[in-house]
Amino acid sequence: MFDFFMEGYRETPRARLLELMSNSADIEYLRTLERTDLLEIYAERCTYGAMQASKPAVVPNT
Fold first, then answer.
1. CA-to-CA distance for 56 and 3, rounded, in angstroms?
2. What is the pTM for the complete model shown?
3. What is the mean pLDDT of the chain?
4. Which sign, positive or negative, has the C-alpha torsion 7, 11, 41, 53?
5. Could you read off the pLDDT of 1-11 as tens digits, one per residue?
6. What is the largest CA-CA distance in the chain?
7. Mean pLDDT of 4-22
8. Which of 15, 38, 48, 60 has the fewest beta carbons closer than 10 A?
9. Counting Cβ atoms within 10 Å, is residue 49 exposed (0-12), middle (13-18) or buried (19+)?
10. What is the b/e burial string over 10-36, where b = at least 16 CB atoms within 10 angstroms of the residue's CB?
11. How many Cβ atoms are within 10 Å of 61's Cβ, its own excluded?
12. DSSP code for 10
């Protein structure tokens, strides 16, 4: 899945990657990185988000 996001965003400019992650708590750190590093971080976060979204909801026993 990581490779899917890397390929999908491979041509995305640095400024756009920063825009996509503008609400991140670590945005100041992200602004110091090169485009390739931002791309990897964004792809990793997208992968993690997709994996979290695909987990089934936990229903408490009543």
1. 24
2. 0.85
3. 93
4. negative
5. 999 999 999 99
6. 51
7. 98
8. 60
9. exposed
10. eeeeeeebbeebeeeeeeeebeeeeee
11. 3
12. T
